[in-house]
Amino acid sequence: MAIEHDFFGLLESGPDGSIFWSENVDMGDQTVTVDLTAPDQDDVSTEALDIAAAMINGIANLDAHAREAMLAEVDDRASEVTEFIVQQQATLGEELQDLLVDRSGDIDVDVIRSLQLMSMTILADEHGSADPFAVLEYALDPDATDDVLLVNLTSDAQVQSVTSAD
After folding, report:
1. DSSP-assigned states of every residue in 87-133
2. What average pLDDT does range 17-33 have in this prediction?
3. 140 in a domain, yes or no?
4. What 8-state DSSP symbol labels residue 14?
5. What's the domain range around 145?
6. pTM, whole model, 2 decimals?
7. CA 56, CA 121: separation in Å to the nearest integer?
8. Three-state DSSP string of 122-152
């Protein structure tokens, strides 16, 4: 079986009924890997695919919204964003300065601005559920795949949570 959609084209399901779509999307001067997945195509609605397409087309706005959510958490010393920044400072030491794209003097702000959006995973079967519909993955160093922050979004593009990968 398959699902046809204006944006995604023909989404063919695997033998187990799952669907998967992947594409690299340009966002400014970087490329972001976007994956759409669902374990059972029967759980994917046209509305979910329309929302996913809108999110992909508006990825720069989602990125800005996610960074605002991260910034909102830096005042909370127990937040995962703050713990991530402290961990990056401890791990990288002086090398951290080389990874910063902007130096305002506020290390929290500078780290969040310097994070690279590596990927967006859309869980198309989670439309309308309590679980994340989309997950944005950020890294300061693209080669350090364990040191990432994940921003979980609902299907109406609201930030659900910001967590570290571990």
Report:
1. HHHHHHGGGHHHH-S---S-HHHHHHHH-EEEEEEEEGGGTTSSS-S
2. 92
3. yes
4. -
5. 19-37+50-164
6. 0.93
7. 10
8. EEHHHCCCCCCCEEEEEECCCCCCCCEEEEE
10 Å Cβ neighbour count for 83?
A: 15
pLDDT, tens digit, for every residue of 61-76?
999 999 999 999 998 8
Phi-psi region of 32 (alpha: psi -120 to 50; beta: other; left: phi over 0): beta
Q: Which residue do the tokens 């921003």 mark?
A: 151
- What lies within 8 Å, CB to CB, of 18 at 6+ separation is 37, 38, 39, 40, 41
127: Cβ–Cβ under 8 A, 6 or more apart, which residues? 44, 45, 47, 48, 51, 133, 155
The one-letter code for the residue type at 159 is V
> pLDDT (tens digit, 9 = 90+) per residue, 84-129?
999 999 988 888 888 898 888 888 999 999 999 999 999 999 998 8
Length of the chain: 166
Q: Name beta bridge partners: 32.
A: 25
Lookup: tokens for 141: 């160093």
Q: How many domains does the chain have?
A: 1
Residue 1 domain-assigned (yes or no): no
Q: Report the amino acid identity of residue 62.
A: L
Run of H or E residues at 8: none
Domain assignment of residue 42, yes or no? no
Whether 2 is in a domain gets the answer no
